[in-house]
Structure formats: C-alpha cells, structure tokens
Amino acid sequence: MDWLSLKSVGKSFNGKQVLKSVTLALPRGRVLCLVGPSGQGKSTLLEIMAGIQKPGGGTVRREGQVSLLFQDNALVPWLSAERNLRYVLPKDWPESARAGKVAFWLERFRLDPKMPPTDMSGGMRRRLALARTFIVGRPITLLDEPFAFLDRYWHSLVAGILADIAGEGRCAALALHSVNPELKEECGGVLDVLELGPSPVEIPPGKGGEAPDKTQ
Amino acid sequence: MRPLRPILPYLVSFMAWAIALWCLGLAFGGQLVPSPLRVLGSLGSLAMDGTLFAELLRTVRRALLGVLLATALGVPLGLLAARFQPLLRYTAPLIAGLQSCPPVVWISIAMVLAGTGSAVPVATVFAATLPILFSNTAQGAMGLPSRVVLMGRLYGVPFARRFLDFTLPGILPFFLAGLSIVLSTAWKAAAVAEFMGSHDGAGARIYWCYSRLDMEGLHAWALAIIVLGLGLEGLVITPLRRKAAAMASKGA
Question: How far apart are CA A149 and CA A141, in angstroms?
C-alpha cells in the first residue's frame, strides 16, 4: 500500500511550467530521493506532497499525516530549541511522553535546549529543523535538502534515521542535488531515486526506483 | 563629580529654566511671570496639601485608561488587518489621516458627545493613540515569517499556541515601539483634554490658574507636568524603545 501518491501533477508559476505531469507513489517502507539541479521543481513537488501548495493540475492522495523539513527550516526564531520541538507536538500527548521525546531528539542532534535559533549556526539550525521533522513520527516524512550545512557524521545519522523510518513501515521523500554515499550505505535496500527534469516523470505506483541513480 | 554625571543634564536644564523664568520676570514684571522661588513655593504647598499628587494621579489614570482601551481595540484590529491585507491597503489613507489629526479635534468631538469630565481626556487619548497601535501591530504581524505560519498549519499547531508562542512575541517589538510613542502622546493629549474639557486633573488645574491669573500656580502645575513627563520618558519610554530595538535586532 502507498502512503502517498501523485497522479499527473503539474505546476506553473507566472506562466512558466515548473512541474510537468509527475506521477509517483511513496510506498510503505521506502525512501524516495527526488534528484535534480536547482529550478527543477523539487521543493515545489515536496510542498505539493505536503499539502501546503496546491497543484496546478492532477491529483494528490495521502493516506497519513505528513511532516516536512522546510528548505529554509521555518523555525520560530524566538523560541528555544526545546520549545521549537514542543511547538509541533500534538496536545493530546501526555506530558511525560512529550518531555521524553523532546529530550531524546535534543540529545540525538546534540542541541542546547535553551538556545534559540537566532544564536545558532546554520548547521545547528538545520539539525533542530530535522529533529522537529522527526519528533512527530508521522507516516510520511518529506525532507527538503536534509544534508545542507551538515558534515558526514550527521549525513550518516540522518540516513540511519531514514532507514529506521522505512523499517517501521513508514515512508520518506527527499529533495537532493545528488545522492550521497552515506544515504546509499544506510538505506541501500529501500532507496528509490527519481531524477526530475523537463520531461514528464512517471513511476508506476509502488514501483519506485526505476529512474537513474546519481551517486555523489 | 562622577556620581553626579547622570543627573547633571537635569540640573543644568533646571538652572536654564530658572534663569529664563527670572529673566522673563524682569521683562514682564513679577505679576505676570513669577520668580522661580515663588513657583517652587507654590509647588511645595500643592504637594503639602495633597492636591498635586491627587490631580497628577487622576491625569495619569485617565491617560492609562485611554491607552488601555486603544490597545484592547488597536491590537486585534491590527492583527485582523494584517490577515486581510486589502483591508489595510484601502484604509491606509484613513489611518494616516487619523494619525495626523491634532488632539483638539477629538477634544471638541468628545465634549459635544460626552459633555465635560473624565470621558473627554479618556476619549481623546483613545482616539489619538488608537491609529498608532493599530498600524504598528499590523506592520509587525505582516512581518511575521510566512513559512513559520505554514509550518504551524502543517503540524496542526492549535490557535492558542500559535498566538502565544509565535504571533504575540513576533509583534511585541513593534507593539513596544508603538507604545513608547503612545505613552508620550497620551500624557500630552490627556493634559490638553483636561484643560479644555474637564473639571479636574492637572490640565484642568492649569486652566483654573489661567482663568484666575494665578501665575505661580500655573507655572507650578506646568513644572509638575513637565517633570512627570520627563520621568515617564526616562523610566518607561526610553527603556521600552531600547527593549523594542534589542528584540527587533534579535529577530523577535
């Protein structure tokens, strides 16, 4: 079963077509990499998948809730790292679960709970945004350039988390310029790569991974 | 000398006032312009019998009530206008017009509608400060990062949390900057409104002194209003401006 599927999705901005008829699916237990140079509509496609942008045409079907790593992080600048994580947690979670999750993800990404994003480096802000994306544990995880500002240690950590997500039967889609070795190593068995370009793109639902592999 | 440094400007300004008053007294005669000593004496007796503090407190209360009412209406309206930006665009000339309106217009209207009394200074302060709080709040809300708004919707963050953790801290520097302008405007507008349309308060006391040609009293009340205005500037308005600037430079 697919967590998310797109059928003939297109998008234009000011008369310029950014996405031309994209058909794809995010099956359970898979990680899809949308690869391509800047301006090919990767971020737009992720935002359409997340539901924060409307497609110009076609249909989007989601079978679960989405979490998204925004390209610009979209952190609340004046909240501490801890409060940025708490900001997105469902209010029906018990306080013990909230506190435990927050402590776990702060520790995992080595973040100072009291530090606000305005005092952080670019890499720390990225790690906080990643922690916020993962903490909610939603079935569909979408990551826009998750490795930007991060060194190889963090590449491996994030790739490992993605492998865990796939192992739990959830799914993830990543927008990348190219697939890095850490991702290939950690997620090799569950990784699908789709190259976005000017032509229509189609992957039969449930059969990702047919597109050419672009290893860094 | 070093411990005196912070109060030196105030001492110099006080001396300049006293010398100017003394010179004017020489030019116009002691009946029209009293000597600084007589003014201070009058101020002392007003303080001793309790009139000074009671009347100043009345003016402060009216000014604060006007500001409070303007905040209660101006902030929600500003937030609403930022959400429906065409509304803001089409009402911009009206807001600019209201902001440039001299208090005397509001005083006259309030006197016609409410007679004389507390309603006039409160309504005047309210009308004079509402456009400032409205436009500052709207400006702050429009400057909130739109991607964070989208993020909040994506994760289903409840309205109350979005408002308390994101919207309010985001508009706070703009609100504080507006409040610093509003407080000095309110103080002046309240005194003028009392002068024209109230039986009591510091402004009304100036009118009483003027109508009886009690020049010592008039100068004493004027001095009290100026000193309180200075205190407001130094203890409230300047720290507010500094806080707003510091928060704005930190992104909140």
Answer: 20
CATH fit for domain A1-65+141-216, picks 3.40.50.2020, 3.40.50.2300, 3.40.50.300, 3.40.50.150: 3.40.50.300
User: What are the start and end residues of each CATH 3.40.50.300 domain in chain A?
Assistant: 1-65+141-216
A57-62 β-sheet, strand order: A57-62, A2-13, A16-27, A201-202
Cα separation, B17 vs B23, in Å, equals 10
A120 within 8 A of A129, measured Cβ to Cβ: no
Do the Cβ atoms of A1 and A143 come closer than 8 Å?
Answer: no
pLDDT at A205: 43
B79 in any annotated domain: yes
For chain A, the residues whose C-beta falls within 8 A of a C-beta of chain B are: 50-52, 66-68, 70, 72, 74-79, 83, 87-88, 90-91, 118, 136
In a domain, B230, yes or no: yes
| CATH number of the domain enclosing B162 | 1.10.3720.10
For residue B143, give the amino acid letter.
G
Quick check: is B25 in a domain? no
Asked if B145's CB is within 8 angstroms of A78's CB, the reply is: no
- Contact in structure between A9 and A213 (CB atoms under 8 Å): no
Task: Answer whether residue B11 is part of any domain.
Answer: no
Q: How many residues does chain B have?
A: 252
Measured between CA atoms, the residue of chain B closest to residue A137 is B155
This complex has an ipTM of 0.86
* Domain total in chain B: 1
Q: What is the interface size between A and B, counted as CB pairs within 8 Å?
A: 52
- The pLDDT tens digits for B98-142 are 888 888 888 888 888 878 888 899 999 999 999 999 999 999 999
Contact B166 A52 (CB under 8 A): no
B155/A88 CB distance under 8 A:
yes
* CB crowding B90-100: b at 16 or more within 10 Å, else e: ebeeebeebee
Q: Which residues of A touch B250 (CB under 8 A)?
A: 77-78, 118
What is the reported pTM?
Answer: 0.77
- Alpha carbon of B126 to those of A3, B68, B196, B197, B230: distances in Å? 55, 8, 16, 15, 22
Q: Do A74 and B150 touch (CB under 8 A)?
A: yes
